[in-house]
């Protein structure tokens, strides 16, 4: 059997399984276009760097601010994931 035949057979098996069990399918990731995803990731990195500086410079207030922002981001990510 050639590699192409094995690949085709594998794809057929996966197609039958996902037809029989729709829960096996998953949403394609990333759902955002590549430029948007890159922009969001770079912005998140810069914000995380600024929050790291705030934690050192402002002490407990910076830590509280960072915890609040991380909590809001986590809740937003969970709600977005559940929506799809």
Q: Describe it for me?
A:
The protein has 84 residues and is mainly alpha-helical. The protein contains three helices and no strands. Helix 2 (34-58) runs antiparallel to helix 3. The two termini are 39 Å apart.
List the defining traits of the structure above.
single chain; 84 residues; mainly alpha; 3 helices
Task: Summarize this entry quickly.
This protein has helices spanning 3-20, 34-58, 60-83. It is mainly alpha-helical and 84 residues long. The longest helix has 25 residues, at 34-58.
Give the end-to-end Cα distance, rounded to a whole number of Å: 39 Å
- Number of helical runs? 3
* Count of strand segments: 0
Report the principal-axis shape. elongated
Low-pLDDT parts are: none
Largest sheet: none
> Could you spell the SSE succession in H and E letters?
HHH
Report the radius of gyration as a whole number of Å.
21 Å
Strand content: under 5%
Structural class: mainly alpha
| Mean pLDDT reading | 88
Helical content band: over 70%
């Amino acid at each position: 059997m050639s590699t192409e035949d094995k690949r085709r057979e594998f794809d057929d098996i996966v197609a039958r399984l996902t037809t029989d069990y729709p829960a096996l399918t998953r949403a394609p990731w990333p759902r955002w276009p590549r430029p948007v995803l890159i922009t969001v990731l770079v912005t998140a990195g810069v914000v995380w760097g600024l929050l790291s500086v705030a934690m050192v410079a402002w002490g407990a207030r910076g830590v509280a601010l960072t915890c609040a922002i991380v909590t809001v981001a986590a809740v937003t990510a969970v709600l977005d994931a559940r929506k799809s």
